[in-house]
Amino acid sequence: MFSKVLIANRGEIALRVLRACKELGIATVAVHSTADTDAMHVRLADESVCIGPPQASESYLNIPSIVAACEITGADAVHPGYGFLSENARFAEILAAHNIVFIGPTAEQIRVMGDKIEAKRAAEALGLPVVPGSKGAVRDELELKRVAAEVGYPVLIKASAGGGGRGMTVAHSEAEVVQAASRARAEAKAAFGNDEVYLERYLKTPRHIEIQVLGDGKGDAVAIGERDCSLQRRHQKVWEEARSPALNDEERERIYAVCANAMKGMSYRGAGTIEFLYDEGEFFFIEMNTRLQVEHPVTEMITGIDLVHAQLRVAAGGGLGVRQEDIRFQGHAIECRINAEHPETFMPSPGTITHYHPPGGLGVRVDSAAYQGYRIPSHYDSMIGKLIVHGNTRAECLMRLRRSLDEFVVDGVHSTLPLFRRLIHHPDIAAGAYDIHWLENFLATKEAA
């Protein structure tokens, strides 16, 4: 096992990784910007190093500064968390060149799965079901119209290097497709410096289902259940649950086997998530995230498997620590992402938290780096924390979530707590009857009213 791990991240995920390291007796190094000097992960780490000013490009994305911090402190491994450099193949290569272990997959695996077109090709080769669409980037107007006609309208045009819903547009007819592609290219160029786009069939009312996987990098892998992430706003996940209310056991076992075999086929190393759209009994691969997901706690709650422990063990050369047949699921878990945003306009609300009281009790977990008096910086994402609840049944889980939301106090900034308090009382949520468009339709109806 490692002697010292540097955590190349901030906020709740940095604190989550720090706790796992401490449980395994691993010394920790926190890196931070000048805006995060008083952050909780900095306070609790064994050592800390300031790596730059508030701008992420000059601190949390500054590879030379992070490598220097490793050399100064003697860290022999880096955990990237999620976001920032967690899916940066070049970062993984640079760490390897300095004999520092990147706690994640290989640089080549990150590179392949980080490009949407290459990822789709790899997925198809590995036996994962894919959405019908173009075989690669669509180069010109003629090809765009031809492929769209073959796939059938409506079509979804997506940026090859996209993420977070940027560089995505829908076209409902040939009259719209060229203009839609032009918008997607412009947005992709501005956001990612790459204007390549590809085209897929647009599924009208799918669920967003993702499979948690873990591979040892030596040809063995397991699928650790699914999560339903269909409640989204502008392609950003808001509410996640495990297991999905939409699947039956036969569908689960089938997609678990497909995903585990695919990861074995590519000798995948570490934790990852294979994301699908699910519609009328069919799964369609959309992307793979080669890192820990924000919503990983719901999987931990229903399996008892610590995914960060697993990441550390695999990266240190150990085995998976679990066989597919040993994985058991108990009850139901739901996660709500509590952000410092106005609950109706969703405008960010940085500022100082004047009162903070997280809920507690049986089956309640709050992953947060916030505290009373903590100032939420304006430079990063607006997450205050994640509320995760577990119950023996989905009904019990919803009941516990309702109580926990009522108990959660965050004052001094706006938060999305009121949104979740509205959602928890909606009959569609109680029934688990929603798709990836449900939340936006709900918000639009409310705004119109």
- State the name of the first-level CATH class of the largest domain: Alpha Beta
Beta-strand content: 25-35%
- The number of helical segments is 15
Architecture per CATH nomenclature, i.e. the level-2 architecture of the largest domain: 2-Layer Sandwich
Report Rg. Answer: 21 Å
List its salient traits.
449 residues, Rossmann fold, Dna Ligase, domain 1, D-amino Acid Aminotransferase, Chain A, domain 1, five-stranded parallel beta sheet
What does this structure look like?
The protein is α+β, with helices and mostly antiparallel strands and 449 residues long. The protein folds into three domains: 100 residues, Rossmann fold (3-Layer(aba) Sandwich), CATH 3.40.50; 70 residues, 2-Layer Sandwich (Dna Ligase, domain 1); 242 residues, D-amino Acid Aminotransferase, Chain A, domain 1. It is 35% helix and 27% strand. It has 15 helices and 20 strands. The chain has an eight-stranded antiparallel β-sheet with strand order 13-12-9-10-11-14-19-17, sandwiched between helices. The termini are far apart.
